[in-house]
Task: inverse folding
């Protein structure tokens, strides 16, 4: 019997994404909220967040449905079939069911069976967490072809009577295929959580005794999240660069969590990165939580901005409070 050598690196070989077709512009949100007696405006939303539109899944469409589209696109880009996949991780806070995992459901929808599949819950940092875990599993010899997905239907947990949150979020999915490789690859990752800040961003309800207990809708203290996010993202960016022996000057692209253009630009400025190195897709899909980073990455790859060999930093931040960064050579 020949043993396969443990790979030294894990490398992204394909990306994919998917937005549900129902697109709501800011003006559509203005009309929708006006029917509830709530005032907002395109100008407020664009100036405070950079968001111009979001996509909402139709009733009955779940995170695994969106994940399936994104996964197929990523597999196609990598030149892989679903049968090649030996690990599936889905980052989501809006799973199809309490259990089993959305990853197990995705595996079944892909028509493959047997490989490990699990969900990872780190809210908007979920994809960055999932990629770091998949990297460790590939480099540890536990997988050779991992499918790492971020998929969300946040529209299901929005309170459409709360204008401070409901205009910010959307639905979508993004995916990458991460494979064992002799060349880098993921260079370093940096993950953090601080449970003291649970209450500034949460969906606190739960299911018990056959009923939803507590509040099942998203609650956010936006200014508190904003302040915390700007500080922790800068720290994670510097730490991951130091781990990899690189500097911010080596970065070709920054792909941060797509929540608010002001947070994203502030992170880029702190790293002294020109804003044309910032990948921003928040205008078109709003905050899609765990899906936002792989969605933005895929858009940048498919548009030809991110090229093979480029050095890219991915950053996530969100409820928990969680945050992290992954540095990679694409
Ligand atoms: N339309 C019009 N006016 C509004 C709206 C709206 N949709 N929402 C709030 N306002 C009003 C407020 O009522 C307030 O009015 P007042 O001054 O008369 O009281 C005013 O606008 C300012 O409100 P602030 O909350 O102070 O606005 P701010 O500039 O902080 O922007 C925002 C709010 C966009 C939410 C910002 O704080 C933010 O982006 N926070 C971070 C969100 C984020 O990054 N989340 C990432 C993680 S998400 C996750 O993990 C799920």
Result:
């Amino acid at each position: 019997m020949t043993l396969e050598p443990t790979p030294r690196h894990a490398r992204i070989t394909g990306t994919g994404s998917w937005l549900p077709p129902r697109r709501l512009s800011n003006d559509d949100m203005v009309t929708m909220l006006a029917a509830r007696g709530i005032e907002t405006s395109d100008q407020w939303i664009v100036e405070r967040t950079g968001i111009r539109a979001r996509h909402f899944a139709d009733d009955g469409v779940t995170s695994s449905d969106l994940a399936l589209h994104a996964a197929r696109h990523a597999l196609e880009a990598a030149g892989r079939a679903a049968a090649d996949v030996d690990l599936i991780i889905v980052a989501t806070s809006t799973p199809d069911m309490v259990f089993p995992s959305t990853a197990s459901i995705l595996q079944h929808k892909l028509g493959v069976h047997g490989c490990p599949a699990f969900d990872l819950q780190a809210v908007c940092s979920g994809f960055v967490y999932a990629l770091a875990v998949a990297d460790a599993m590939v480099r540890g010899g536990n997988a050779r072809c991992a499918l790492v997905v971020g998929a969300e239907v946040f529209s299901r947990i929005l309170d459409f009577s709360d204008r401070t949150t409901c205009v910010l979020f959307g639905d979508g999915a993004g995916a990458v295929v991460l494979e064992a490789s002799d060349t880098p690859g993921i260079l370093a990752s940096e993950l953090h959580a601080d449970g003291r800040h649970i209450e500034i961003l949460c969906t606190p309800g739960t299911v018990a005794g056959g009923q939803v207990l507590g509040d099942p809708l998203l609650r956010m203290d936006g200014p508190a999240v904003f302040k915390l996010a700007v500080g922790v993202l800068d720290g994670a960016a510097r730490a991951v660069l130091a781990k990899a022996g690189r500097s911010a000057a080596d970065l070709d692209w920054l792909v941060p969590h797509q929540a608010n253009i002001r947070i994203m630009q502030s992170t880029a400025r702190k790293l002294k990165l020109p804003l044309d190195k910032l990948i921003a897709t928040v205008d078109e899909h709003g905050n899609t939580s765990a899906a936002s980073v792989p969605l933005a990455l895929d858009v940048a790859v498919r548009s030809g901005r991110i090229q093979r060999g480029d050095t890219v930093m991915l950053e996530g931040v969100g409820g928990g409070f969680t945050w992290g960064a992954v540095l990679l050579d694409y």
